[in-house]
Amino acid sequence: MGGIEERIQRIKMLIIDVDGVMTDGGIILGPGSIELKRFHARDGMGVTLAKAAGLMVGILTSRDSEVVRRRASELEIDEVQQGFFHKEEGYQAILKRHGLREEEVAYIGDDILDIPILRRTGFSICVADGADEAKQVSHYVTQKKGGEGAVREVVEMLLNGLGKKEEAIVSILSPSKNSAKK
Q1: How far is Cα 21 from Cα 50, in angstroms, rounded to an integer?
Q2: Residue pair 111/130 in contact by the 8 Å Cβ criterion
Q3: CA angle in degrees (0–180, nearest 5) for 87-100-129
Q4: Crossing angle of helices 41-52/165-173, nearest 10°?
Q5: Is the whole-model pTM more than 0.70?
Q6: Less Cβ around it within 10 Å: N or C end of the chain?
Q7: Gap between the terminal Cα atoms of the chain
Q8: Would you call 169 exposed, middle or buried from its count of C-beta atoms within 10 A (0-12, 13-18, 19+)?
Q9: Which homologous superfamily does the CATH classification assign to the domain defined by 10-169?
Q10: Is residue 71 classed as helix, strand or coil in its secondary structure?
């Protein structure tokens, strides 16, 4: 199916797992339904860059969390599928809703629940501190750990490969783009 450069050329959407990818994997549970997660601002800017370059961005996660809904809203993420222990159902819904073929999707995961999706997407990525089993089925393993800039690393790789990084930066810095978020 080609090397990484060829795979990147087909990508139209980046789908991201949350716990262990957008976060360091820690989940803080408080009284009642209080749940806290720590997101990295540069990963958020990575999402903003991806969208500015014309890529769709989605979240696919096994947990269902209000914190994730809030972060996805802040970043204007195109698609959020939560609460799928077996992620294939959420993944299929994303493909169908956006009319995508699997080779047009990049997916970042970190653990064994991500393996079925990592095996199917056009460009599969595991974070540096992900499970060995997930790394073994991925096309690329990041240098950065989950929650520490891995999403930004992947976005920059995609945008460089698509030749759209400078265009995305210019778009974000344009005075008419006054609502860019991190």
Answers
A1: 16
A2: yes
A3: 45
A4: 100
A5: yes
A6: N
A7: 34
A8: middle
A9: HAD superfamily/HAD-like (3.40.50.1000)
A10: helix
